[in-house]
Amino acid sequence: MTAAWAPPVSLDNCAAEPIHVPGAIQPxxxxxxxxxxxxxxxxxSANVADWFDVPxxxxxxxxxxxxxxxxxxxxxxxxxxxxxxxxxxxVPLDVGGRSLVATLHRSDGYLVVEVEDSDxxxxxxxxxxxxxxxxxxxxxxxxxVAADAARWIRSLTGFxxxxxYRFDAEWNGEVIAEERRGDLxxxxxxxxxxxxxxxxxxxxxxxxxLRLIPDIQYRPVxxxxxxxxxxxxxxxxxxxxxxxxxxxxxxxxxxxxxxxSMSVSIVIQxxxxxxxxxxxxxxxxxxxxxxxxxAEFLAQLISLRVAETEDAELRAxxxxxxxxxxxxxxxxxxxxxxxxxxxxxxRQREVLxxxxxxxxxxxxxDEWVRVGVVPPDDVVRRLVDEWPLDDAVxxxxxxxxxxxxxxxxxxxxxxxxxxRREVVAWFRPELVRQVDWGGDPHNAKLYAAEGDxxxxxxxxxxxxxxxxxxxxxxxxxxxxxxxxxxxxxxxxGALLRRERHHAGIASDxxxxxxxxxxxxxxxxxxxVHDEPAxxxxxxxxxxxxxxxxxxLLVAVVGDVAGHGLRAAAEMAQLxxxxxxxxxxxxxxxxxxxxxxxLMARVLPxxxxxxxxxxxxxxxxTVRMSHAGHVPALVATTAAAAAFVADAAGDMLLxxxxxxxxxxxxTLPAGGALVLYSDGLIEQPQRPIDDGLELLRRTVPGALAxxxxxxxxxxxxxxxxxxxxxxxxxxxxxxxxx
Length: 737
Description:
6-stranded antiparallel β-sheet; Phosphatase 2c, domain 1; disordered N terminus; alpha+beta
């Protein structure tokens, strides 16, 4: 017989300890693994002779019947053929008058048979489960369900202490219910750090509902052979009832004074929610198979009841908060045009109560509506910028943002737009609280001297350790997320209605402010094309063309930065003001300089581009000035076109008040001046220089089009495709001689 396979174990590697393949079982039972369907023995536990009077060497390779008996083989064979998922329990065996009970499961391609002594004399389990099930149905809250669970599991199993242990989001545990022997100190309300139950142990608890250690002083019984099926790994005992446990866990229990233990999982929707932890202090303790199976069944009932009560609490809480969100929504929808700012400020208490917050901010465009206690704007913007892209909703109870102290230890943020430039954010303040731990959670490792060596061992102190937790808010509940989602949808709908209303006004404003017709000038043809953005947004583009008297023809194309009602209103002011300046003094540089002064005083922060041209219709002389605008194009013949030289030297409107320069060109008979907005040449995935070159090559062909062609529209058609996303204005002024 070879020695048991055992990985090196210490606290340094316990988080990665392969506890599902310990290479050994506990000695209160025996294990036999056989191949199917021939039932040849491939692996046995070293104590197989204590149960079947056959040594491991004589069992390996033999038929199962040669070890357990022909009658018992038939019982096992029938059981394995039955319809079961993870495990088949309570298979009765008789070995020389000794009553055994077998449990079957499959692992690594083997049928694993585990046997232990029968407890057929215990007839209390069924009645206890029945009474427990009736009591659980009457429980109305999670804590009440947990209290019932502790009471009935203790009645079933006889342990000195039974606790119900609930995990938080970081896998720290809290004892929320307890039943104990009268002389024991209470653990109710204590917390235990996540390091007490490593991740791989939690995964086993999720997969296998019940674990038992009847005597923590047991000596592991190795498997023979230690490496099965030439896999270089021992048999996977994840679903075993006899699996040997981590020596670190045994030492941990010993440090608590525990002599026997059992744990039963509470699993909700496939996830580990908590544990029912059972401890004994008066020596070894082995509840019978029937009692353990009843406890496991009861744990499944408890899991269902916990899920039901949590769902009921969530529904009640969600309905309460949803009613608040809907009440604010009624105010948003009361008027044909939502007064969003007014509603948010007049319903401040309700806006906060939607998610039980102390501060909120709604960011829409340049508008920030603050309610309650909100951190500084730069902190809010930094929070949004650091929002993980994979998270649809930002939910945190510890922001860790400098400048947010006190006002925003917790944040709950929802997007109003896909780019997250517009958001709704709620904030909660720091909640200073005391947490009582069963031992120092920051001292999970203690060094203990043993002779000349120093080794790591699990923490030995489980005395009450009180921690003051700072920098965190009250955690956000799922009901808060649901209510916040509902409120955000209402608000997004109101914003859409307001945007449509503003877009209608802006569209009307653009239409009214643009010339209803172009002037008729003998010897000149004027073609205009005006096209809104493909996105449906109203932008700040404008054009103007009018007779200034004295044989002078004025043409302007401009663009205000931004979209929507504000951009349209600013466009209207700039267009009218520039027209007035040009009628007073038809000199493009001076008119743009005067517009700079107006913008600095009346429209601070507004930025625009413009190209302004004044044509002497008698001589064909053009005097123009550019303010950060794309260059005008002059076509002197049907075969040549060129951009106005030195057109890009002047700054945007609204940026400077320095003197502006003029550019001069002459349009002979057949020559044309083309003014346009950047929407003509800019398109996604096309560099602006490529757009300019395409325009330069297109204009001569446009001028050669048959009489009656709207040359401006034809140019736009050649340069645009389905990717067009910006407003476009094109003016073509042609000297026909």
